[in-house]
Amino acid sequence: MLPEELHAQLQKKIAAAHRPRELAIDVMYAVQKHYGFLSDEGLLEAADLLGMTSLELEELATFYDFLYRQPVGRFVIHVCDGVVCWMFHEGSVFDYLCQKLGVCAGQTTADGLFTVLPTACAGFCDHAPAMLVNGVPYGPLTPESIDQILQKLRSESCDLVVCR
Amino acid sequence: MPKLIIDHREIEVPPGTKVIAAAERLGIMIPRFCYHPGLGSFGACRMCAVKFLEGPVKGVEMSCMTEAQDGMVFSTTDPEAVEFRRYVIEWLMLNHPHDCPVCDEGGHCLLQEETISGGHGLRRYEGKKRTFHDQDLGVFIQHEMNRCIHCWRCRNFYQGFAGYRDYGAMQIGNRTYFGKYQEGPLESPFSGNLVDLCPTGVLTDKVARFKGRRWDFERGPSLCLHCSLGCNITSGARYREVLRQEGRFHEKVNGYFICDRGRFGFRYESHPQRPRRAKVDGREVSLPEAVQAAAARLGRISREAGPDAVACWGSSRSSLETQAELRRLSRGQGWRAPLFFNDASQDRKVRNAVSRLDVRLAVSLREIEEADFILAVGADPVNEAPMLALALRQAQRRGAQVAVLDPRPVFLPLEFQHLPVPPGSINRCLCILLKGALSSRAAQGLLEAGAAHFYDALKCSYDQDPGLQDRLLALGRSLQPSQRAVIVCGTEIVRDSTPDLAADFVLLLNTAGIRTGLFYLLPGSNAFGAALLSGTAEDAPPLHPLIEAMERGEVKALILVENDPFWHFPDKDRLKRALDRLELVVALDYLPSPVMARAQVVLPTTTLFEGQGSAFVNQEGRLQWAPRLHHGGAPLAQVGGGSHPPRVFLDYVPGSEPRPGGEILRDLGAALTPDPGAPAVDWWTWLAQENPGFSNASALPAPPGGLRLLPEAGKPPVLSLEEVNRNADRVPEGHLELFLVDRTFGTEELASYSPHIQKAEQAPRLLLSAQDAAQLGLAPGEQVTLRLPGGPLTIEIEAAVNMASGVMFLPRHRQLAWQKLGGWPMLIAYNAIEKG
Amino acid sequence: MNSNPELVLLRNQREDRPATLEEYRASGGYEALALAVREKAPRQICEMVKDSALRGRGGAAFPAGLKWLGVKEDAPHPRYVVCNTDEMEPGTFKDRILVDADPHQAIEGCILAGYAIQAQRGIIFIRPSYEQGAQLLERELEVARQAGFLGQNILGSGFSFDLTVHRSAGRYICGEATAQVNAIMGNRPHPMKGVHMAAQGLWGLPTLVNNVETLACVPHIVRNGPEWFRRLARTPTGGGTKLYAVSGKVNRPGVYELPIGTPLREIIEEHAGGMLSGGEFKACLPGGASTRYLPRQFYDLEMDYDTLKAVGHRLGTGAIIVYDNHTCFVGATLNLQEFFARESCGYCTPCREGLPYIRDLLWRLENGEGKEEYLPMLRQMAGHMAKSYCAFAPGAAEPVISLLTYFADEVREHISQKGCPFKGVDKPRPHLWYPPEE
Ligand SMILES: Cc1cc2nc3c(=O)[nH]c(=O)nc-3n(C[C@H](O)[C@H](O)[C@H](O)COP(=O)(O)O)c2cc1C
Ligand code: SF4
Ligand code: FES
Description:
The structure holds three protein chains of three kinds. In chain B, 30% of the residues lie in helices and 18% in strands. By secondary structure, chain B is α/β, with parallel strands linked by helices. Chain B has five domains: 3-92, Ubiquitin-like (UB roll); 127-270, no CATH class; 298-342 and 527-621 and 639-665 and 684-697, Rossmann fold (3-Layer(aba) Sandwich); 348-504, Dimethylsulfoxide Reductase, domain 2 (3-Layer(aba) Sandwich); 735-835, Barwin-like endoglucanases. The relative contact order of chain B is 0.11. In chain C, α10 (212-224) packs across α11. The radius of gyration of chain C is 22 Å and the shape is globular.
């Protein structure tokens, strides 16, 4: 269950909105942030808050790729597979990343820390090859920088962005 | 009117016509998937591409998205368009499982047809097919997502057209999945239309699953008998039973669609216990023998105890022929005039309503869709006449304002204003509304019409709830600018005078220059016909005197025609006692009802599927004709030992004895009076003599669109000021008024014999307002026992916030012994409601 | 970073942080707004924008002034302005730089648009990977509100307008104007055809959707006049400067604000630092992933809408993705089709089914399973994408069409060599991170 405070806060926000549905994404983000992913329970709570049916919200939740309907690791790594980053695959930095973490795209490391997901061009082509970790961009990546980033993430928590 | 040239042929079409529809008028069926005339254009499938050669549009465009304009020249066979369409169908088939042999859509599959017409025959795609998991969508609809071609029709219908919110599209791209959030029954009582709409085998009829290909069926036009709207249906029978039904287009009535009660409620026809043999004193005899026996006994009673000792009790579900023959029989024999309703108040309301409709006032369902303001009075569309809800939704989507004046927690799949007032206050509220509506612009018109004094005298206060009074006045005012308003009036829970008041209301609005139509809901598929045949209020016998006469022994014989009083009559014990006093009960029916078991003479009748064809008059006075679908007989599945075709050939059809009720009654009449003496008048002439309402009907079958049996001008306003202004009959302190109501599934007699409809029912519950529940100290979901005149009735309660207080509603549910009620509406004291 | 005197949009760009309200005002910021609300009628602003030759920077290049004038004066209220900061087209990142450099410029642009069409509310629609930008905008919106540029009774003029940030949850189609309106309304972001946004957009009310770069130009137009703006361009029909986002095999990828119509060669060689060592210019996508490959022969072309149109190309968003001679174009196109097939909203058939088919054929070509008959199929299918419901699939087809126009030999080489001739170099790995198929 959502904590009362968050629930009340969302309720207030929705009440102030032009139309509740406009806040569908924001509410789902908030719920996702609370549960770590957009759980079934969270989706139902969000639907309830928004006055939408579970189906109506699921129609949206499953459309977008920054809403996670399955459990994800503490860090969600959106690896950019846009064409510019693709061009810089010589070093196979992403192969390196996957090898390093021992997972393929869509999978979460055994320690529950990292989930690797491919993403459409992330808008950091000037830093290609790039990736987002919990919404924070990194690039241009090299095997060395990947090591450093993973190291840093393992030791400290990451400054967080809304989608996680 | 734009004129255009399609494949070298010229056609002129009304403005606003889409090119795809224009071509159809020429008989050119441009391939399509997402476009459906009932749903409109969506431009999603891109199958309907044609090439525009000249005119305001050029190049390959979608014919469903392009409006016909003057000077357009286009080709459906242009190579570019043809090649494109070939690709579209190839794309659509990439992931299709090609499982036609095991798909129920096979044989009437639009995808099969367009695959051929699109010219796609060879599979070139070498990739893998994506697959999906299916969901259990309840008893009516089978889901097989792998076959989906993403035409979006299902979602466009379900959410857009019908307004339900539990089925839709999830995921994205070619992974898009049509289904529910979680598997489970579809909430919409219109879900069956998905079967008709889905162009392939994703959504198929679960009830008819694997029962046959379309060409195996004897298919034909038919009518829905499950409420008074008279929706048009195509029925399909195979091996002597109806197996599958579809919506049939009727421009004025149901459009393309029907509700699930109508689609899936047909199984009474093949009920295993359906009476198929005539019986006399429990012994099976031939039908002519039974008719002779009935005639002999009836004749004797009539002679010995006088013709008043014989009574006839028909029903509003019988065909017009059967109803008329019943009337003819009783008239010819001098018996008591027949009854067609099971409740005196209902009888009055229906007859009042029918007498008020005329050509100017009556509107069809289609006209409701075109209205800009609709007020429903004492009506719960989804439960009483489901397709009305869809019509209201279409009106609302086009911008109409919809309001419902009804005490129940009415649900409609649309935005509407609900004014929950108790039935006793509806008249008063209508008057306030009328006052609001006539307040300004109207006054002038009224003065001229001399009705101003009526307006002046309208009381305009509702002291119970001033807030409600303001809402009513405001609603009335918003009626003023209306161009096409409609008043819908139910006849179930309203007071006897309400149907008349509604008609007066409509007349006044029209007098004041606000064009307003009138639309009644009636109890039964042929309630209109029954009302016309009942004659005027004065000459029809009320129900209770009949029961009393039975109790006193004055009535000695009763002919029950397609009527199961045990279903309808609210006092079962009394009915039993009354029937027990009779010397003779002659029962005609196709339902295995309890009276069939008690009757001394049982005469099995045909359903509308097997008769010679039957006529029914819907609630707007439209006489419609259902021809014979099949020749009857017990279904092979019941007599064939499970195998088909039968291994043993007979020279008769087992179970084919039943005959149309009207025919049996005619034979009965002939057997009673072998020589009628006077020459028989032709049937229609006779009907017109009985009631001028029939005078414009001359022959059957009626024309395809049906025939309106309505007078040019109906009655003038009938209600006196005194009556209109009479204060709401308030419920005495410490009491609740109890009403019987309908549910979409579970209360309608015919459909309730269908096992799959039974599975879709919700358990019956006693509905009362949250306020009253709190007052009684009852929690939602709690069990209560009502101490009723006929004994205790235990039931779970449902407490609703959006309903009037002071009233309770009990569904006339198959699973509920509501026949302990004794009568309705009735007052229940608080202390007659006990917990547990 | 840039000290170029001709800078308009990026003149306040700094390396370390976004420009503040004070810095923006010091450079003339919000003067246009003050001028507009005090001295100009809303329609006059629309006319100025029309006269400036400003064309939509979101890709479609529709004349901005015409779009604004499309909102009828007697249209119903409330009206809306949507500032499209979705920018999910591969290769584009100019909007991020623009917002990060000078958020108030974008905000002022939105307010002016709001004034010009007499809107009550504006919505900045932003993609999830620009969350930092979203937070920045939210902060600066509050600053602008405090300063009286936003909210009730702006600068005492009686005009009220407020702006909020709407976060997206990803998906390229949300950038399409009508899909964006659906997304904001909490509907599935399908595009809507035949809906006239100026009359019936958000909630069925008049709505203006413009790219953030388009809107950011407006304060300058209002302040300096349309004539000034037109003269910024290097081509006769152009107007203003353009943010060229250069990426790929160049030494200095980044966003360069240059007069519209700057030749490609100049952009690459002078501004983006030339090709990465060892590589030669082979072709570029001149305006993001949904434009056609612009091969070497157009190296000296002026990068403007009309000049490119004249040679059968589109400037799109002006995001120049530069490929060198080591890049396999079958692979590159395959990557793009992976993207488009994955992002298709699924509404119409050509896009939903046709793009995966194209992707499949390209994958086969790239992986040695190619056949000669794929070429006409690809050509036909890509051509037919133009008959899709919205502009997504036609855009997706552009690289394929130009692949077959300019690099058919390279495609055939894949067939004859039964594989990619660029082995080892830029090895395309479309399923790079996917688990092996069962
Ligand atoms: C598939 C697709 C994606 C688009 N994405 C964007 C986008 O991310 N940002 C943008 O400004 N315009 C995008 N557009 C263009 C918009 O539809 C619209 O034309 C634009 O926002 C209008 O603004 P402008 O006239 O200022 O360019 C996209 C169009 C299509 C067909
Ligand atoms: S489920 Fe059927 S009706 Fe719905 S989109 Fe798919 S094919 Fe069409
Ligand atoms: S029927 Fe025209 S696009 Fe589907």
